[in-house]
Amino acid sequence: MKTITTTADLAAYCTEAAGHDYVTVDTEFLRERTYYSKLCLVQLAMPGTDDSGAVLVDPLADGISLEPLYDLFRDTSVVKVFHAARQDLEIFFVDAKVFPEPLFDTQVAAMVCGFGEQVGYETLVRKIVREGVDKTSRFTDWSRRPLSDAQKTYALADVTHLRQVYEFLAAELEKSGRGRWVAEELEVLTNPDTYITAPRNAWKRVKTRTSSGKFLAIVRELAAFREEYAQTRNIPRNRVYKDDALVELASLKPSTMEELSRARLLLRDARKGDIAEGILRGIKVGVACKPGDMPQPDRSREKLQVNPALADLLRVLLKAKTESAGVAAKLIAPAADLDGIAAGLRDVPAMKGWRLEVFGNDALRLCEGKIALTAMGSDVKVVEV
Description:
CATH architecture of the largest domain: 2-Layer Sandwich
Distance between the termini: 64 Å
Strand order of the largest sheet: 1-4-3-2-5-6
Strand content: 5-15%
């Protein structure tokens, strides 16, 4: 199996790949010790039935540039095929602000084609290719060199089998006319906002048991400091301090180093130096926050009056529609959105795009009393009222 370690060899491969309709892509990376993923390997394969058109690209090789690969990503005549592409795309966006275009994600396509929710690559290979995938090297350290033969074989299998998976799913989408569905789902993956975490918005990910504006103002400042500190030093945010420590600090509101030292959940390194000073500074700013500037939790759904009977009917309708369409129910609407629809909410994904066609239109008609549901044997049918 060939491993590319120079820019010239990568450029030659990408030039050849540009003559094909598609190329399959995967990556191996580490993120346990960094904020941003560390790219350790890129796997590529051109159409074919053997390993001759498949290569491993070593981004850790001295002097290598991935720009030829990014040029291939920009070539709209070649489909770039990934499985569960989100983390891969984040790596390329952070490194070069580039997204593969056009993009095909076999996990998304498989959900649309009736393979279930977030189906794994191994499952697709088993069901479509009728092959097994050796996962013994999944949790190895991909940054260490040299790579073992077992690691290389494992990594290459992630793009060689992907060719048949892609060709099968692409054909299924062509027959069903659901290519537009997949395109809609992929829009979020190629939106830069998906991969940008603004420090001032980091507090929204922290789970708290109170909605006090003053408390949340402190949480916002502590979360913003942690995010910025982690980003600038490229370390995991939990290495600065964990969420439970952040919430504890927001409750204790220490104002001195001595008071800070009494926090039970704070890591040792966070009790001194830049982190400790940042914590005290953030708490001071949060405590002084004026009422008009305090963050407000989203309470829009708390005021909704859910009709439980209608919500149950919507669940039955969703089950009937997804079974008929061969689509995973959670791909269309989670339980919380069904409750929202039953309470009169309309700004939910189920009421937009292809979901509106499959489920949303009839959900609206059910809410308006224009249709009813009836059982015919083991099937549920929609009947006009």
